[in-house]
Write a structure and sequence with these properties.
It contains ten helices and seven strands. The protein is α/β, with parallel strands linked by helices and about 260 residues long. It has one domain: Vaccinia Virus protein VP39 (Rossmann fold, 3-Layer(aba) Sandwich), CATH 3.40.50. Strand 1, helix 3 and strand 2 form a beta-alpha-beta unit.
């Protein structure tokens, strides 16, 4: 994918994202759009967990602009889990989700699957260029999402997971144990709370990839979700968490740097 002029695309996508409710910050949104546009293989863009469409809007805008097909957005739009956003008096986020897509001008670029991810996975057969996991954050659910959809990643495809740093224990554990510790993945990194890795089953066990993943895992293991800290929050514990967070590389990469990182061959 030629990413010349990508900054202008991102700026417009970000403008639409900012008026959509959700929990993705600007840097995470920019990274997600870059990963979707810059995955070096063909295949579907799959989102697990849509809520009211904040990340969906960004993914769909990029897919629409570059002709990448419709984003498959998987979410039952209910609140079955303790990790789901509070809907207040609402019973579902679905109506808001649809309205937000229409307002952003991307409704036609989204294939909405109003179902649980394991239900969609039963009949899934397409290769995936980008898999964005941001659904139920409990460990069994995150593990299941990766187990069911991960095998469909096209070699060279990109896995992106939300809230793997300083947020929830489930995504963090799965990313550490099943992604960073696996030779099925090559280049990897963080962007804010996002963890990402490129599916490289052919050469992911190479020394440079393995060493990089090991470093990321070593640093990230010390960045504990606030609810799981085993000691009372003190100035020392806050400093300790900040230190480990700071040495877990999570800055935004440029399009040129991204292209070099995930180039195949």
């Amino acid at each position: 994918m030629d990413l010349a002029g990508f900054q202008a695309v991102c700026d417009e996508g970000l403008r639409r994202i900012r008026v959509t409710p959700g929990y993705l910050d600007d840097r995470e949104a920019l990274f997600l759009m870059l990963a979707a546009a810059g995955a070096p293989v063909d295949g579907a863009i799959v989102e697990i967990g849509s809520f009211k469409g904040r990340s969906t809007v960004g993914l769909a805008y990029v897919a629409q602009h570059y002709g990448l097909g419709r984003v498959v957005a998987v979410d039952p739009h209910t609140s079955p889990s303790a990790t789901d956003p509070d809907l207040g008096a609402q019973k579902s986020s679905y109506d808001d989700f649809q309205e937000n897509l229409r307002r952003a001008g991307v409704a036609d670029a989204v294939d909405c699957r109003r179902a649980f991810s394991h239900e969609v996975a039963r009949d899934w057969s397409q290769p995936i260029r980008l898999l964005w996991i941001d659904g139920d954050h409990m460990y069994p659910a995150v593990k299941q999402d990766l187990t069911l959809f991960g095998p469909h990643l096209a070699p060279g495809g990109i896995l992106v997971m939300h809230d793997v740093l300083r947020s929830w224990g489930g995504p963090q554990r799965v990313f550490l144990e099943d992604v960073l510790a696996s030779d099925d993945f090559g280049p990897a990194g963080f962007c804010r709370s996002i963890g990402w890795a490129q599916y490289r089953p052919g050469d992911g066990g190479g020394l440079r990839f393995r060493a990089r993943r090991a470093y990321l895992g070593w640093a990230a293991r010390h960045v504990r979700p606030p609810k799981e800290l085993e000691e009372p929050t003190t100035r020392v514990s806050r400093w300790r968490q900040w230190f480990w967070w700071s040495i877990s590389p999570h800055r935004l990469v440029t399009p040129a740097r991204w292209t070099a990182l995930v180039a195949l061959g």
